[in-house]
Amino acid sequence: MNYSHGSLENEIMKTIWMIEEIEGIDVSVNEVQESINRLSEAKRAYTTVKTVMDRLVEKNMLVRYKQGKKFFYKTVSSRDEMAQQAIKKLASQYFNNDMNSLAQAVSGMSARQRECKTTELV
For residues 83 and 111, what is the distance between their CA atoms, to the nearest angstrom? Predict the structure, then answer.
């Protein structure tokens, strides 16, 4: 599977996971577009959302099926499964598959973020 995707693809995936988790249903392009436009300042056209969702099908991140005259989409992997794959890819690319080194980098990053927040408050 190709887990690399852009920010609109990410926004669409998060929206679909949210709908699947809350409503337990597969989604149409219209439902995704309406949800994104309701929750985001950037308004997206139906055709833009459909094009990106079809790309996500090509990348095997979504599956599409037709019911009547309407197409529905569902995710191939859960949010947690996709996050695990992304973390494994990150560990492979930058830490020679050493999860401890990755965890130390994240821990160090978290400490620096806490320090920055503390200095901002002063």
Answer: 22
For the chain, strand residue ranges (E) read: 62-67, 70-75
Cβ neighbours of residue 63 closer than 8 Å, sequence gap 6 or more: 57, 73, 74, 76
Average pLDDT over the chain, rounded to an integer? 87
- Residue 87, CA distances (Å) to 6, 26, 39 in order: 17, 26, 27
Helix then strand then coil, % of the chain, to nearest 5: 65, 10, 25
State the pLDDT at residue 1. Answer: 45
Query: Measured at the alpha carbon of residue 8, what is the angle toward residues 10 and 43, in degrees to the nearest 5?
Result: 130
Q: What does the alpha-carbon distance between residue 32 and residue 12 come to, in Å, rounded to a whole number?
A: 7
pTM above 0.90, yes or no: no
